[in-house]
Write a structure and sequence with these properties.
The complex is a heterodimer of chains A (about 300) and B (about 325).
Chain A lengths: L23 H40 L4 H5 L14 H31 L4 H14 L3 H13 L11 H25 L3 H9 L4 H29 L3 H6 L18 H9 L4 H32 L2
Helix pairs in contact in A: 1-11, 3-6, 3-8, 3-10, 4-6, 5-6, 6-8, 7-8, 8-11, 10-11
Chain B lengths: L17 H43 L1 H6 L3 E2 L10 E2 L2 H32 L2 H16 L2 H26 L17 H25 L3 H9 L4 H12 L1 H17 L2 H6 L17 H8 L5 H32 L4 H5 L1
Classes of the chains: A mainly alpha (about 300), B mainly alpha (about 325).
Amino acid sequence: MSVQTPTRPAPGASERPSLHVTTPNARRRTLMSRVMAAVLFLTVMAAVTPLAILLWQVLSNGWGPFGWEFLTTIEPLSYRETGGGYLHGIVGTLYMTGVAALVSVPLGIGAAIYLTEHPTGRYASVVRFFTDVMTGVPSVFVGLAIYALLVSGSGGLGLGFGTLAGATALGVIMLPIVVRSSEEMLRLVPTDLKQASYGLGAREWQTTLKVTLPAAAPGLTTGVILAVARGAGETAPLILTALGAREVIFRLTGAPQADVGLLMLDGFRQPFEGGIQRAWAGGFTLILITLGLSIIARIIARRSQI
Amino acid sequence: MSAPTTERPQPSGLLGQARARRADPLFRALLMVAASSVLLILAAMIIRTSIEAWPVFAKEGIWGFLSGRQWSVGTSRSEVTGTYGAFPFIYGTLLISAIAIAFAVPLAIGIALFTNELAPSWLKRPLTYTVDTLAMVPSIVYAFVGMYFFRIEVWAPVGQFIAGTPAGEIPFFSGPVLLSSYWSAANILAIMILPIITAICRDVFAQVPADEKNAAYAMGATKWEVMSRVIVPHSFSGIVGGSMLGLGRALGETLAVAVLIGSTRDMTSSVFQPGDAMTALIANTFADAHPEAIWALLAIGVTLFFITMIVNIAARLIVARVNTRVGGGAVV
Protein backbone atom coordinates (compact mmCIF):
# COMPACT_ATOMS: atom_id res chain seq x y z
CA MET A 1 0.00 0.00 0.00
CA SER A 2 1.53 3.12 -1.10
CA VAL A 3 0.52 6.33 0.59
CA GLN A 4 0.57 9.28 -1.64
CA THR A 5 1.86 12.37 0.04
CA PRO A 6 -1.04 14.82 0.25
CA THR A 7 1.03 17.82 -0.56
CA ARG A 8 3.18 17.18 -3.48
CA PRO A 9 5.40 20.08 -4.28
CA ALA A 10 4.13 21.91 -7.28
CA PRO A 11 6.39 21.96 -10.26
CA GLY A 12 9.04 24.57 -9.92
CA ALA A 13 8.36 25.08 -6.19
CA SER A 14 11.95 24.69 -5.27
CA GLU A 15 12.76 27.97 -6.96
CA ARG A 16 9.95 29.88 -5.22
CA PRO A 17 10.51 30.60 -1.53
CA SER A 18 7.67 29.74 0.82
CA LEU A 19 5.72 32.59 2.35
CA HIS A 20 6.91 31.37 5.73
CA VAL A 21 10.50 31.96 4.86
CA THR A 22 11.45 35.52 5.63
CA THR A 23 14.13 37.18 3.65
CA PRO A 24 16.77 39.21 5.47
CA ASN A 25 15.21 42.34 4.00
CA ALA A 26 11.79 41.53 5.44
CA ARG A 27 13.35 40.75 8.82
CA ARG A 28 15.12 44.10 8.77
CA ARG A 29 11.90 45.94 7.94
CA THR A 30 9.94 44.16 10.67
CA LEU A 31 12.69 44.89 13.16
CA MET A 32 12.69 48.54 12.08
CA SER A 33 8.95 48.71 12.64
CA ARG A 34 9.29 47.23 16.13
CA VAL A 35 12.13 49.60 17.04
CA MET A 36 10.16 52.60 15.84
CA ALA A 37 7.12 51.47 17.83
CA ALA A 38 9.35 51.52 20.91
CA VAL A 39 10.63 54.97 19.96
CA LEU A 40 7.07 56.27 19.59
CA PHE A 41 6.26 54.83 22.99
CA LEU A 42 9.24 56.74 24.38
CA THR A 43 7.87 60.00 22.95
CA VAL A 44 4.64 59.34 24.85
CA MET A 45 6.70 58.77 27.99
CA ALA A 46 8.51 62.06 27.30
CA ALA A 47 5.17 63.85 27.60
CA VAL A 48 3.73 61.81 30.47
CA THR A 49 6.84 61.98 32.68
CA PRO A 50 6.99 65.80 32.99
CA LEU A 51 3.27 65.87 33.76
CA ALA A 52 3.68 63.20 36.43
CA ILE A 53 6.69 64.97 37.96
CA LEU A 54 4.88 68.30 37.89
CA LEU A 55 1.75 66.95 39.57
CA TRP A 56 3.84 65.01 42.08
CA GLN A 57 5.91 68.07 43.00
CA VAL A 58 2.83 70.23 43.49
CA LEU A 59 0.96 67.54 45.44
CA SER A 60 3.81 66.51 47.71
CA ASN A 61 5.01 70.06 48.45
CA GLY A 62 1.60 71.68 48.52
CA TRP A 63 -0.24 69.14 50.63
CA GLY A 64 1.56 70.07 53.85
CA PRO A 65 1.00 73.84 53.91
CA PHE A 66 -2.46 73.46 52.34
CA GLY A 67 -5.30 73.25 54.81
CA TRP A 68 -8.03 75.09 56.64
CA GLU A 69 -5.73 77.86 57.82
CA PHE A 70 -4.47 78.40 54.26
CA LEU A 71 -8.00 78.77 52.93
CA THR A 72 -9.35 81.04 55.66
CA THR A 73 -6.58 83.50 56.57
CA ILE A 74 -4.67 86.12 54.66
CA GLU A 75 -0.92 86.26 54.15
CA PRO A 76 1.24 87.72 56.96
CA LEU A 77 3.01 90.96 56.09
CA SER A 78 6.46 89.37 55.93
CA TYR A 79 7.41 86.54 53.60
CA ARG A 80 9.62 85.20 56.41
CA GLU A 81 6.67 84.30 58.59
CA THR A 82 5.16 80.89 58.15
CA GLY A 83 1.46 80.19 58.48
CA GLY A 84 -1.26 82.37 57.09
CA GLY A 85 -2.91 81.74 53.78
CA TYR A 86 -4.24 82.96 50.48
CA LEU A 87 -7.87 83.75 51.37
CA HIS A 88 -7.61 87.13 49.63
CA GLY A 89 -6.09 85.53 46.54
CA ILE A 90 -8.69 82.76 46.35
CA VAL A 91 -11.49 85.31 46.75
CA GLY A 92 -9.92 87.48 44.05
CA THR A 93 -9.39 84.62 41.60
CA LEU A 94 -12.92 83.29 41.98
CA TYR A 95 -14.43 86.79 41.93
CA MET A 96 -12.64 87.86 38.75
CA THR A 97 -13.21 84.51 37.02
CA GLY A 98 -16.90 84.65 37.98
CA VAL A 99 -17.43 88.18 36.65
CA ALA A 100 -15.51 87.27 33.49
CA ALA A 101 -17.69 84.19 32.96
CA LEU A 102 -20.90 86.18 33.55
CA VAL A 103 -20.05 88.44 30.61
CA SER A 104 -18.16 86.19 28.23
CA VAL A 105 -20.39 83.09 28.43
CA PRO A 106 -23.67 84.72 27.23
CA LEU A 107 -21.74 86.79 24.69
CA GLY A 108 -19.81 83.77 23.47
CA ILE A 109 -22.84 81.50 23.19
CA GLY A 110 -24.72 84.31 21.37
CA ALA A 111 -21.87 84.59 18.88
CA ALA A 112 -21.81 80.80 18.53
CA ILE A 113 -25.56 80.74 17.76
CA TYR A 114 -24.98 83.38 15.09
CA LEU A 115 -22.18 81.30 13.58
CA THR A 116 -24.31 78.13 13.59
CA GLU A 117 -27.26 79.90 11.97
CA HIS A 118 -25.03 81.19 9.19
CA PRO A 119 -22.70 78.26 8.50
CA THR A 120 -21.43 79.66 5.20
CA GLY A 121 -22.12 83.39 5.47
CA ARG A 122 -19.30 85.73 4.57
CA TYR A 123 -19.51 87.80 7.76
CA ALA A 124 -19.80 84.61 9.83
CA SER A 125 -16.64 83.18 8.30
CA VAL A 126 -14.78 86.42 9.02
CA VAL A 127 -15.95 86.25 12.65
CA ARG A 128 -15.05 82.57 12.84
CA PHE A 129 -11.58 83.20 11.46
CA PHE A 130 -10.81 86.07 13.82
CA THR A 131 -12.17 84.10 16.76
CA ASP A 132 -9.64 81.40 15.92
CA VAL A 133 -6.93 84.03 15.62
CA MET A 134 -8.02 85.54 18.95
CA THR A 135 -7.42 82.23 20.75
CA GLY A 136 -3.76 82.74 19.84
CA VAL A 137 -3.41 86.35 21.03
CA PRO A 138 -0.83 86.36 23.84
CA SER A 139 -2.52 86.74 27.21
CA VAL A 140 0.02 89.35 28.26
CA PHE A 141 -1.01 91.48 25.26
CA VAL A 142 -4.63 91.24 26.41
CA GLY A 143 -3.43 92.51 29.78
CA LEU A 144 -1.60 95.45 28.17
CA ALA A 145 -4.60 96.30 26.01
CA ILE A 146 -7.03 96.22 28.93
CA TYR A 147 -4.55 98.38 30.85
CA ALA A 148 -4.56 100.92 28.01
CA LEU A 149 -8.35 100.72 27.56
CA LEU A 150 -9.68 100.58 31.12
CA VAL A 151 -6.97 101.14 33.72
CA SER A 152 -4.87 103.98 32.36
CA GLY A 153 -6.20 107.49 32.96
CA SER A 154 -4.65 109.00 29.84
CA GLY A 155 -6.83 107.96 26.94
CA GLY A 156 -8.37 104.99 28.74
CA LEU A 157 -11.43 104.98 30.96
CA GLY A 158 -9.26 105.52 34.02
CA LEU A 159 -10.96 102.89 36.19
CA GLY A 160 -7.69 102.05 37.88
CA PHE A 161 -6.35 98.61 38.74
CA GLY A 162 -8.92 96.30 40.21
CA THR A 163 -11.47 93.54 39.94
CA LEU A 164 -13.28 94.88 36.87
CA ALA A 165 -10.12 95.36 34.81
CA GLY A 166 -8.84 91.91 35.76
CA ALA A 167 -12.19 90.29 35.04
CA THR A 168 -12.37 92.02 31.64
CA ALA A 169 -8.94 90.68 30.71
CA LEU A 170 -9.92 87.13 31.75
CA GLY A 171 -13.22 87.50 29.88
CA VAL A 172 -11.44 88.51 26.68
CA ILE A 173 -9.24 85.42 27.00
CA MET A 174 -12.24 83.14 27.67
CA LEU A 175 -14.52 84.56 24.94
CA PRO A 176 -13.00 82.92 21.83
CA ILE A 177 -12.76 79.55 23.60
CA VAL A 178 -16.46 79.74 24.53
CA VAL A 179 -17.42 80.76 20.97
CA ARG A 180 -15.55 77.99 19.19
CA SER A 181 -16.42 75.15 21.57
CA SER A 182 -20.09 76.22 21.70
CA GLU A 183 -20.28 76.39 17.92
CA GLU A 184 -18.96 72.83 17.67
CA MET A 185 -21.64 71.68 20.10
CA LEU A 186 -24.54 73.62 18.54
CA ARG A 187 -23.66 72.20 15.14
CA LEU A 188 -24.30 68.71 16.53
CA VAL A 189 -27.97 69.49 17.32
CA PRO A 190 -30.03 67.59 14.71
CA THR A 191 -31.80 69.81 12.18
CA ASP A 192 -34.90 67.64 12.63
CA LEU A 193 -35.37 68.99 16.13
CA LYS A 194 -35.26 72.59 14.93
CA GLN A 195 -37.54 71.88 11.99
CA ALA A 196 -40.03 70.15 14.26
CA SER A 197 -40.06 73.25 16.41
CA TYR A 198 -40.56 75.55 13.41
CA GLY A 199 -43.25 73.19 12.19
CA LEU A 200 -45.19 73.75 15.39
CA GLY A 201 -45.08 77.46 14.67
CA ALA A 202 -42.32 78.47 17.04
CA ARG A 203 -40.44 81.62 16.27
CA GLU A 204 -36.69 81.70 15.76
CA TRP A 205 -35.91 82.92 19.26
CA GLN A 206 -38.27 80.35 20.77
CA THR A 207 -36.66 77.54 18.80
CA THR A 208 -33.18 78.66 19.75
CA LEU A 209 -33.80 79.26 23.44
CA LYS A 210 -36.21 76.38 24.09
CA VAL A 211 -35.05 73.65 21.69
CA THR A 212 -31.52 74.15 20.39
CA LEU A 213 -29.86 75.38 23.58
CA PRO A 214 -31.38 72.72 25.89
CA ALA A 215 -30.48 70.00 23.38
CA ALA A 216 -26.86 71.21 23.31
CA ALA A 217 -26.72 72.03 27.04
CA PRO A 218 -24.29 69.29 28.19
CA GLY A 219 -21.84 70.06 25.41
CA LEU A 220 -22.10 73.80 26.02
CA THR A 221 -21.46 73.25 29.73
CA THR A 222 -18.31 71.28 28.93
CA GLY A 223 -16.93 74.04 26.73
CA VAL A 224 -17.83 76.75 29.22
CA ILE A 225 -16.21 74.91 32.12
CA LEU A 226 -13.02 74.38 30.12
CA ALA A 227 -12.97 78.09 29.25
CA VAL A 228 -13.50 79.04 32.89
CA ALA A 229 -10.71 76.70 33.94
CA ARG A 230 -8.43 78.39 31.41
CA GLY A 231 -9.40 81.81 32.78
CA ALA A 232 -8.89 80.79 36.40
CA GLY A 233 -5.37 79.62 35.61
CA GLU A 234 -4.28 82.84 33.86
CA THR A 235 -1.94 85.11 35.77
CA ALA A 236 0.03 87.11 33.22
CA PRO A 237 -2.74 89.59 32.24
CA LEU A 238 -3.57 90.16 35.90
CA ILE A 239 -0.09 91.60 36.54
CA LEU A 240 -1.19 94.48 34.32
CA THR A 241 -4.82 94.78 35.36
CA ALA A 242 -5.46 93.48 38.90
CA LEU A 243 -1.99 94.34 40.24
CA GLY A 244 -2.35 92.40 43.52
CA ALA A 245 -3.54 93.20 47.04
CA ARG A 246 -2.78 92.14 50.58
CA GLU A 247 -6.33 92.02 51.89
CA VAL A 248 -9.70 90.66 50.84
CA ILE A 249 -11.24 93.05 48.29
CA PHE A 250 -14.93 93.03 47.39
CA ARG A 251 -15.02 96.30 45.45
CA LEU A 252 -15.44 96.08 41.71
CA THR A 253 -13.28 99.11 40.93
CA GLY A 254 -11.01 101.50 42.76
CA ALA A 255 -8.83 99.01 44.63
CA PRO A 256 -6.25 96.56 43.24
CA GLN A 257 -7.39 92.95 43.51
CA ALA A 258 -5.41 89.91 44.68
CA ASP A 259 -5.04 86.64 42.76
CA VAL A 260 -3.58 83.25 43.69
CA GLY A 261 -1.15 83.34 40.77
CA LEU A 262 0.08 86.84 41.63
CA LEU A 263 0.59 85.88 45.29
CA MET A 264 2.52 82.79 44.21
CA LEU A 265 4.71 84.85 41.89
CA ASP A 266 5.57 87.25 44.72
CA GLY A 267 6.02 84.39 47.18
CA PHE A 268 8.28 82.02 45.29
CA ARG A 269 10.62 84.67 43.95
CA GLN A 270 11.57 85.63 47.52
CA PRO A 271 14.18 83.48 49.22
CA PHE A 272 12.06 82.95 52.32
CA GLU A 273 10.73 79.59 53.38
CA GLY A 274 7.35 80.88 54.58
CA GLY A 275 6.50 82.54 51.26
CA ILE A 276 7.67 79.51 49.27
CA GLN A 277 5.57 77.15 51.37
CA ARG A 278 2.47 79.26 50.81
CA ALA A 279 3.28 79.40 47.08
CA TRP A 280 3.31 75.57 46.94
CA ALA A 281 -0.07 75.51 48.62
CA GLY A 282 -1.24 78.18 46.15
CA GLY A 283 -0.08 76.00 43.24
CA PHE A 284 -1.95 73.10 44.80
CA THR A 285 -5.09 75.27 44.96
CA LEU A 286 -4.79 76.33 41.31
CA ILE A 287 -4.21 72.74 40.16
CA LEU A 288 -7.21 71.68 42.22
CA ILE A 289 -9.39 74.36 40.59
CA THR A 290 -8.27 73.91 36.98
CA LEU A 291 -7.91 70.12 36.87
CA GLY A 292 -11.04 69.70 39.00
CA LEU A 293 -13.02 71.80 36.53
CA SER A 294 -11.63 69.94 33.53
CA ILE A 295 -12.45 66.56 35.09
CA ILE A 296 -16.03 67.75 35.76
CA ALA A 297 -16.22 68.95 32.16
CA ARG A 298 -15.10 65.57 30.85
CA ILE A 299 -17.55 63.66 33.03
CA ILE A 300 -20.38 65.81 31.67
CA ALA A 301 -19.08 65.36 28.12
CA ARG A 302 -18.92 61.60 28.50
CA ARG A 303 -22.37 61.28 30.06
CA SER A 304 -23.95 63.34 27.31
CA GLN A 305 -22.52 61.18 24.56
CA ILE A 306 -25.29 59.20 22.94
CA MET B 1 -64.54 62.69 5.59
CA SER B 2 -62.88 64.00 8.63
CA ALA B 3 -64.26 63.88 12.11
CA PRO B 4 -65.43 67.30 13.21
CA THR B 5 -63.06 68.88 15.62
CA THR B 6 -64.56 69.86 18.90
CA GLU B 7 -63.25 73.36 18.77
CA ARG B 8 -61.25 75.52 16.45
CA PRO B 9 -57.73 75.87 17.85
CA GLN B 10 -57.24 79.33 19.24
CA PRO B 11 -54.25 81.28 17.96
CA SER B 12 -51.56 81.55 20.56
CA GLY B 13 -51.43 84.73 22.50
CA LEU B 14 -48.32 85.84 20.68
CA LEU B 15 -49.70 85.47 17.19
CA GLY B 16 -50.40 88.69 15.38
CA GLN B 17 -49.17 91.01 18.10
CA ALA B 18 -46.85 93.73 16.97
CA ARG B 19 -44.44 93.01 19.81
CA ALA B 20 -44.14 89.38 18.82
CA ARG B 21 -43.40 90.28 15.24
CA ARG B 22 -40.54 92.43 16.41
CA ALA B 23 -39.11 89.65 18.60
CA ASP B 24 -37.23 87.80 15.89
CA PRO B 25 -35.48 90.77 14.28
CA LEU B 26 -34.49 91.89 17.77
CA PHE B 27 -33.17 88.41 18.56
CA ARG B 28 -31.18 88.34 15.34
CA ALA B 29 -29.77 91.78 16.07
CA LEU B 30 -28.64 90.60 19.52
CA LEU B 31 -26.87 87.60 17.99
CA MET B 32 -25.26 89.89 15.43
CA VAL B 33 -23.96 92.13 18.22
CA ALA B 34 -22.58 89.11 20.09
CA ALA B 35 -20.82 87.88 16.97
CA SER B 36 -19.45 91.34 16.23
CA SER B 37 -18.15 91.70 19.79
CA VAL B 38 -15.19 89.47 18.93
CA LEU B 39 -14.15 91.75 16.08
CA LEU B 40 -14.84 94.91 18.10
CA ILE B 41 -12.77 93.75 21.08
CA LEU B 42 -9.89 92.71 18.85
CA ALA B 43 -10.00 96.04 16.99
CA ALA B 44 -10.31 98.11 20.19
CA MET B 45 -7.34 96.33 21.75
CA ILE B 46 -5.03 96.79 18.80
CA ILE B 47 -6.02 100.40 18.05
CA ARG B 48 -5.76 101.56 21.66
CA THR B 49 -2.37 99.94 22.29
CA SER B 50 -0.99 101.22 18.98
CA ILE B 51 -2.04 104.81 19.80
CA GLU B 52 -0.49 104.58 23.29
CA ALA B 53 2.71 103.10 21.92
CA TRP B 54 2.96 105.52 19.00
CA PRO B 55 5.29 108.10 20.66
CA VAL B 56 7.94 105.39 21.12
CA PHE B 57 7.69 104.21 17.52
CA ALA B 58 7.72 107.84 16.38
CA LYS B 59 10.94 108.60 18.23
CA GLU B 60 12.87 105.44 17.39
CA GLY B 61 11.34 104.73 14.01
CA ILE B 62 9.78 101.30 13.52
CA TRP B 63 12.95 99.76 12.14
CA GLY B 64 15.06 101.49 14.79
CA PHE B 65 12.82 100.08 17.51
CA LEU B 66 12.99 96.56 16.09
CA SER B 67 16.74 96.50 15.49
CA GLY B 68 18.06 98.76 18.26
CA ARG B 69 20.16 97.09 20.93
CA GLN B 70 20.01 99.67 23.67
CA TRP B 71 17.10 99.76 26.11
CA SER B 72 17.48 102.57 28.62
CA VAL B 73 14.30 103.71 30.23
CA GLY B 74 13.51 107.37 30.77
CA THR B 75 11.48 108.70 33.68
CA SER B 76 9.35 111.29 31.90
CA ARG B 77 5.58 111.53 32.30
CA SER B 78 4.85 113.34 29.06
CA GLU B 79 7.52 112.69 26.43
CA VAL B 80 9.86 109.96 25.27
CA THR B 81 13.36 110.63 26.65
CA GLY B 82 14.93 107.16 26.87
CA THR B 83 16.34 104.95 24.15
CA TYR B 84 14.30 101.96 23.16
CA GLY B 85 15.75 99.18 21.07
CA ALA B 86 13.85 95.93 21.33
CA PHE B 87 16.23 93.64 19.45
CA PRO B 88 17.57 91.68 22.47
CA PHE B 89 14.01 90.83 23.52
CA ILE B 90 12.87 89.91 20.03
CA TYR B 91 15.99 87.75 19.62
CA GLY B 92 15.33 85.99 22.95
CA THR B 93 11.69 85.34 22.14
CA LEU B 94 12.48 83.96 18.68
CA LEU B 95 15.40 81.86 19.95
CA ILE B 96 13.56 80.11 22.76
CA SER B 97 10.48 79.58 20.58
CA ALA B 98 12.60 78.02 17.84
CA ILE B 99 14.28 75.63 20.28
CA ALA B 100 10.91 74.76 21.83
CA ILE B 101 9.46 73.98 18.39
CA ALA B 102 12.48 71.84 17.52
CA PHE B 103 11.83 69.74 20.64
CA ALA B 104 8.06 69.71 20.63
CA VAL B 105 7.22 68.95 16.99
CA PRO B 106 8.95 65.53 16.73
CA LEU B 107 7.55 64.57 20.14
CA ALA B 108 4.04 65.66 19.15
CA ILE B 109 4.19 63.70 15.89
CA GLY B 110 5.39 60.64 17.81
CA ILE B 111 2.66 60.93 20.43
CA ALA B 112 -0.06 61.47 17.82
CA LEU B 113 1.16 58.47 15.78
CA PHE B 114 1.30 56.28 18.85
CA THR B 115 -2.17 57.38 20.01
CA ASN B 116 -3.82 56.92 16.61
CA GLU B 117 -2.01 53.90 15.21
CA LEU B 118 -0.31 51.81 17.89
CA ALA B 119 -2.15 52.27 21.18
CA PRO B 120 -4.78 49.65 22.05
CA SER B 121 -8.25 51.16 21.88
CA TRP B 122 -8.73 51.24 25.67
CA LEU B 123 -5.60 53.39 25.98
CA LYS B 124 -6.48 56.00 23.36
CA ARG B 125 -8.85 58.11 25.41
CA PRO B 126 -6.68 58.20 28.58
CA LEU B 127 -3.67 59.11 26.45
CA THR B 128 -5.57 61.96 24.80
CA TYR B 129 -6.75 63.22 28.18
CA THR B 130 -3.26 63.04 29.68
CA VAL B 131 -1.70 65.13 26.93
CA ASP B 132 -4.62 67.60 27.03
CA THR B 133 -4.14 67.91 30.78
CA LEU B 134 -0.71 69.42 30.08
CA ALA B 135 -2.60 72.31 28.47
CA MET B 136 -4.81 72.81 31.53
CA VAL B 137 -1.95 73.27 34.03
CA PRO B 138 -1.67 77.01 34.77
CA SER B 139 1.39 78.76 33.43
CA ILE B 140 2.37 80.00 36.90
CA VAL B 141 2.59 76.38 38.11
CA TYR B 142 4.91 75.53 35.21
CA ALA B 143 7.02 78.54 36.17
CA PHE B 144 7.15 77.48 39.81
CA VAL B 145 7.97 73.80 39.28
CA GLY B 146 10.39 74.77 36.51
CA MET B 147 12.20 77.07 38.91
CA TYR B 148 12.32 74.71 41.89
CA PHE B 149 12.67 71.32 40.20
CA PHE B 150 13.18 70.98 36.45
CA ARG B 151 15.93 73.54 35.91
CA ILE B 152 17.95 72.18 38.83
CA GLU B 153 17.40 68.45 38.39
CA VAL B 154 16.96 68.08 34.64
CA TRP B 155 17.77 70.97 32.33
CA ALA B 156 20.99 72.26 33.86
CA PRO B 157 22.53 68.74 34.09
CA VAL B 158 21.51 68.02 30.49
CA GLY B 159 22.95 71.39 29.46
CA GLN B 160 26.15 70.56 31.34
CA PHE B 161 26.36 67.29 29.44
CA ILE B 162 25.89 68.99 26.07
CA ALA B 163 28.47 71.65 26.91
CA GLY B 164 30.89 68.85 27.80
CA THR B 165 30.54 67.02 24.49
CA PRO B 166 32.35 68.23 21.35
CA ALA B 167 29.22 70.30 20.60
CA GLY B 168 30.30 72.51 23.50
CA GLU B 169 33.06 73.90 21.31
CA ILE B 170 30.44 75.76 19.27
CA PRO B 171 29.75 79.13 20.97
CA PHE B 172 26.02 78.37 20.77
CA PHE B 173 26.38 75.42 23.16
CA SER B 174 29.33 76.60 25.22
CA GLY B 175 29.36 76.65 29.00
CA PRO B 176 29.11 77.69 31.75
CA VAL B 177 25.59 76.42 32.19
CA LEU B 178 23.43 78.67 34.34
CA LEU B 179 20.13 77.73 35.94
CA SER B 180 18.16 80.63 34.48
CA SER B 181 18.86 80.68 30.77
CA TYR B 182 17.43 80.62 27.26
CA TRP B 183 17.81 76.83 27.57
CA SER B 184 15.55 76.53 30.65
CA ALA B 185 12.92 78.82 29.14
CA ALA B 186 12.98 76.90 25.85
CA ASN B 187 12.55 73.58 27.64
CA ILE B 188 9.52 74.68 29.64
CA LEU B 189 8.01 76.12 26.45
CA ALA B 190 8.49 72.79 24.69
CA ILE B 191 6.39 71.05 27.35
CA MET B 192 3.76 73.79 27.31
CA ILE B 193 3.19 73.85 23.54
CA LEU B 194 3.22 70.06 23.19
CA PRO B 195 -0.57 69.61 23.74
CA ILE B 196 -1.77 71.92 20.96
CA ILE B 197 0.62 70.50 18.34
CA THR B 198 -0.31 66.96 19.40
CA ALA B 199 -4.03 67.76 19.18
CA ILE B 200 -3.73 69.12 15.64
CA CYS B 201 -1.52 66.17 14.59
CA ARG B 202 -4.05 63.68 15.98
CA ASP B 203 -6.81 65.42 14.02
CA VAL B 204 -4.97 65.46 10.69
CA PHE B 205 -3.60 61.91 11.08
CA ALA B 206 -7.14 60.67 11.73
CA GLN B 207 -8.21 62.20 8.43
CA VAL B 208 -5.85 60.12 6.30
CA PRO B 209 -8.19 57.92 4.22
CA ALA B 210 -8.32 54.34 5.50
CA ASP B 211 -8.12 53.15 1.88
CA GLU B 212 -4.66 54.60 1.44
CA LYS B 213 -3.42 52.99 4.65
CA ASN B 214 -4.99 49.64 3.78
CA ALA B 215 -3.52 49.78 0.29
CA ALA B 216 -0.07 50.19 1.81
CA TYR B 217 -0.66 47.31 4.24
CA ALA B 218 -1.87 45.14 1.36
CA MET B 219 1.39 45.81 -0.44
CA GLY B 220 3.19 44.35 2.56
CA ALA B 221 4.21 47.58 4.29
CA THR B 222 5.03 47.38 7.97
CA LYS B 223 3.31 49.62 10.51
CA TRP B 224 6.25 52.00 10.57
CA GLU B 225 6.33 52.18 6.78
CA VAL B 226 2.62 53.05 6.71
CA MET B 227 3.18 55.73 9.34
CA SER B 228 6.29 57.26 7.81
CA ARG B 229 5.42 56.96 4.12
CA VAL B 230 1.63 57.29 4.04
CA ILE B 231 0.31 59.05 7.12
CA VAL B 232 3.00 61.67 7.73
CA PRO B 233 3.43 62.76 4.08
CA HIS B 234 -0.33 62.90 3.67
CA SER B 235 -0.63 65.15 6.75
CA PHE B 236 2.40 67.28 6.07
CA SER B 237 0.71 70.66 5.74
CA GLY B 238 -1.43 69.91 8.80
CA ILE B 239 1.74 69.26 10.79
CA VAL B 240 3.18 72.57 9.56
CA GLY B 241 -0.01 74.39 10.56
CA GLY B 242 -0.10 72.75 13.99
CA SER B 243 3.56 73.60 14.55
CA MET B 244 2.88 77.22 13.70
CA LEU B 245 -0.01 77.32 16.16
CA GLY B 246 2.43 75.96 18.74
CA LEU B 247 4.93 78.62 17.70
CA GLY B 248 2.26 81.27 18.28
CA ARG B 249 1.71 79.96 21.79
CA ALA B 250 5.43 79.84 22.48
CA LEU B 251 5.94 83.44 21.34
CA GLY B 252 3.20 84.69 23.66
CA GLU B 253 3.87 82.55 26.73
CA THR B 254 4.68 84.87 29.60
CA LEU B 255 5.18 83.75 33.17
CA ALA B 256 7.16 80.58 32.71
CA VAL B 257 9.56 82.52 30.48
CA ALA B 258 9.64 85.56 32.78
CA VAL B 259 10.70 83.39 35.70
CA LEU B 260 13.17 81.12 33.92
CA ILE B 261 14.96 83.25 31.33
CA GLY B 262 17.07 85.22 33.79
CA SER B 263 16.35 88.76 32.54
CA THR B 264 19.65 90.21 31.40
CA ARG B 265 19.97 92.61 28.51
CA ASP B 266 23.28 91.40 27.08
CA MET B 267 22.63 88.99 24.27
CA THR B 268 25.09 86.19 24.85
CA SER B 269 25.71 83.72 22.08
CA SER B 270 25.31 80.65 24.30
CA VAL B 271 21.86 79.17 24.97
CA PHE B 272 23.01 78.21 28.45
CA GLN B 273 23.33 81.87 29.46
CA PRO B 274 20.54 84.12 30.71
CA GLY B 275 18.79 86.50 28.35
CA ASP B 276 15.45 88.24 28.08
CA ALA B 277 12.28 87.95 26.05
CA MET B 278 9.47 90.32 25.06
CA THR B 279 6.83 88.81 27.31
CA ALA B 280 9.31 88.45 30.17
CA LEU B 281 10.22 92.14 29.95
CA ILE B 282 6.56 93.18 30.10
CA ALA B 283 5.77 90.93 33.07
CA ASN B 284 8.94 91.68 35.02
CA THR B 285 9.19 95.46 34.66
CA PHE B 286 5.57 96.61 34.46
CA ALA B 287 4.93 96.88 38.20
CA ASP B 288 7.48 99.64 38.75
CA ALA B 289 7.52 101.31 35.34
CA HIS B 290 7.21 105.06 34.76
CA PRO B 291 4.54 106.24 32.33
CA GLU B 292 7.16 106.56 29.63
CA ALA B 293 8.40 103.02 30.20
CA ILE B 294 4.83 101.76 30.01
CA TRP B 295 4.55 103.23 26.50
CA ALA B 296 7.69 101.35 25.61
CA LEU B 297 6.23 98.14 27.06
CA LEU B 298 3.09 98.78 25.01
CA ALA B 299 5.30 99.15 21.94
CA ILE B 300 6.84 95.76 22.75
CA GLY B 301 3.33 94.39 23.21
CA VAL B 302 2.20 95.71 19.83
CA THR B 303 5.27 94.18 18.18
CA LEU B 304 4.57 90.87 19.88
CA PHE B 305 0.92 91.06 18.83
CA PHE B 306 1.80 91.53 15.18
CA ILE B 307 4.39 88.75 15.18
CA THR B 308 1.97 86.26 16.79
CA MET B 309 -0.86 87.52 14.58
CA ILE B 310 1.10 86.80 11.39
CA VAL B 311 2.11 83.36 12.67
CA ASN B 312 -1.43 82.54 13.80
CA ILE B 313 -3.15 83.74 10.64
CA ALA B 314 -0.73 81.71 8.51
CA ALA B 315 -1.25 78.68 10.76
CA ARG B 316 -5.04 78.98 10.68
CA LEU B 317 -5.05 79.32 6.90
CA ILE B 318 -2.91 76.20 6.53
CA VAL B 319 -4.87 74.16 9.08
CA ALA B 320 -8.24 75.31 7.70
CA ARG B 321 -7.23 74.28 4.19
CA VAL B 322 -6.29 70.80 5.34
CA ASN B 323 -8.91 70.32 7.94
CA THR B 324 -12.37 71.77 7.80
CA ARG B 325 -13.00 70.98 11.44
CA VAL B 326 -10.37 72.41 13.75
CA GLY B 327 -12.45 72.60 16.89
CA GLY B 328 -9.81 70.71 18.82
CA GLY B 329 -7.27 73.36 18.13
CA ALA B 330 -9.57 76.09 19.36
CA VAL B 331 -10.15 74.50 22.72
CA VAL B 332 -6.76 73.06 23.60
